Amino acid sequence: MNTRTIAFANQKGGVGKTTTAVSVAACLAELGKRTLLVDLDPQANATSALGLQKLEGGSVYQALLGGAELAASIQPTGIENLSMIPSEVDLAVAEVDVARAENYLHRFRLALQPIHDSGQFDIIVVDCPPSLGILTMNALAAADRVVVPIQCEYFALEGLAVIMRVIQQIHDSGANPGLELSGIVMTMFDGRTNLAQQVLEEVKKHFGPKLYKMSIPRTVRLAEAPSFGKPITKYDPSSYAAWAYRQLTEEILEREAPRPAEPIVPASA
Fold first, then answer.
1. Residue 199: which region, alpha, beta or left (left: phi > 0; alpha: psi -120 to 50)?
2. Cβ contacts of 76 within 8 Å, gap of 6 or more
3. What is the domain count for the chain?
4. Do residues 186 and 150 touch, judged by C-beta distance below 8 A?
């Protein structure tokens, strides 16, 4: 498999996006996939979740502006097969600086290209900011696939429609004609509640096969893991949450297999 770039995106915060990006990256590494996790969020939660420091000048910021090679920011995580480009607070300034740059929508793609072409990694995972700003747009313009985590609540459905339109626009505008939705994953799922079941059925009705079969549970251990600087697969490898993320990762890999082209959003959505 050629190097693939998968962006984890949702403009709504608190939906388990970063936890899912970090956990899937760790599961990919566990499966022997040479994985690079890029923290594109100025909040740097993915960086903290893997126990890395937020060092000034250590993020994608300078590379986005053409002032440094992105490969120089790659750091080991202490987990076999998993490397990372961390984030820093200064990355927030990139929203303004990149917008002024030439080819502003493709700055991340250009910076990432040498790493992509090197064949050093099998999969590049990008954790996007919880917004639809320049950084997220740059991630979508560079990605092959998008994974959209959503929380099991009604407001999440409204946000889902927005991110789907943006993905479609990036695809149709020519900014990234190869962009495809890999799938939607339900997070913080509690099957005992009517609300969770109702939201799940609503997403199934509109997006059908784009919904991953595996939903991620709301668990205390999963919430604790970032504070210890470990993904759930290392913090509590035998937990149900770790198993769920391993199952989700298998689904993501299955969808990377060659298949006929299909629309990003079914006509019924």
1. alpha
2. 83, 84
3. 1
4. yes
∠ Cα 94 97 100 (to 5°): 140
Contact 44, 94 (CB under 8 A): no
**Lowest mean pLDDT, pick from 37-51, 55-69, 116-130:** 55-69
- In the predicted model, is pLDDT for residue 13 greater than 90? no
CA distance 103 to 147: 25
pLDDT at 57: 79
Domain that holds residue 213: 4-252
Query: End-to-end distance of the chain based on CA atoms, in angstroms?
Result: 31
- Is position 148 within any domain? yes
Please name the residue ranges forming H helices in 145-260.
154-172, 194-207, 220-224, 232-235, 240-254
* Residues present in the chain in total: 269
What contacts 173, CB < 8 A, 6 or more positions away?
A: none
Q: Which residue has the tokens 């607070």?
A: 89
Q: Given this model, what pLDDT does residue 265 score?
A: 52
What integer pLDDT is reported at residue 263 of this predicted model?
Answer: 53
Which CATH number characterizes residue 14's domain? 3.40.50.300
Q: Report yes or no on 269 lying in a domain.
A: no
CA distance linking residue 203 with residue 267, whole number of Å: 14
Average pLDDT over residues 52-65: 88
